[in-house]
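Sample 3 of the quickstart, ligand magnesium ion:
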Amino acid sequence: MSMGEFDLIQRYFSTLTPPAKTGVVIGVGDDAAVIDVPHGEQFVMSVDSLHEGVHFPKAVSPEVVAQRSVAANMSDLAAMGAMPRWCLLNLALPEMNEAWLEGFSKQLGNALKYFEVSLVGGDTVKADSLSVALTMTGSVPNGAMLTRSGAQDGDDVYVSGFLGEAGMGLRNYLQAPDPNQRVQQRFLYPVPRIVLGRMLRDIANACIDVSDGFLQDVEHIAKASQCQITIEVNKIHISNAMQALEKDKQTLLEFALNGGDDYELCFTAPSTAEEKIKSLSSALSLPITKIGKVTKNPEQVFGITCLDEHGEMLAFAKKGYQHFTGSE
Ligand code: ADP
Ligand code: MG
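Result:
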């Protein structure tokens, strides 16, 4: 007899993560999960859906779908300074494909276990096309969350990692898939900056994760914090891997400023925090680069200005991804 919904849940998802992780009273198997709220903490929740053909090319492996789903969700929690702890999985499948489920559940389990997150429930349905929605819940000490709206006049603007690698990785993957190419790996297997987000709680005034394109995402900080943000474009670190694959400087910058899927953190912090941020960068073996400045002048429009190495204003069309407008 072919496998049904309940067997599927039982086989692939009911014991995916170890039982009795932080706060789980009831996990997969009952009508709903029950969680103990950690003492002195607040819940932080986020959901992200990945649809075949929209968020990932049809050809990618189930392992890649799982990893990208985990990264997209956890990255939002990282940007809030939260620790991800529990998640719910909504799976829409066009067919019962055991090989796909095997690969997907294995990678999902590995990624969740790595970050000590429990899968506590979900929903499984048949649909015309494949989609995966993961609801990630985490916690943060009362009032300690990071937001987009906290940037202060005079703050420096920092970004982690190497912007643009994932964007270039997607382009290259579509042209010629090569699982050994670093930039493609960065697109296929993104890693959320959970530890950095948590460490920034006491350092950053505002934070966002870079997922749709750097300029578009930083602009959210400017709008939410009602400030101007000036980015010194020449300070943005273009990785050696990118430079080895592309010589045209303008193309490299376009990837860094407008490419999506980086899942790095962009944050603002007072200038007094610079030494702390340098130590954090070496402790995490992760580049954290100072690339801009926050100013607050209520007379001016809230938004982003890009400057070149001579301090001249650069016109960069902001082209991050937006659904419905179809802009990319
Ligand atoms: P109900 O009909 O009461 O909504 P379901 O039959 O949909 O319950 O689900 C049974 C149990 O399996 C629930 O605990 C639910 O959270 C869990 N579950 C269903 N699908 C998934 C999934 N894809 N991943 C993890 N848990 C799931
Ligand atoms: Mg029920």
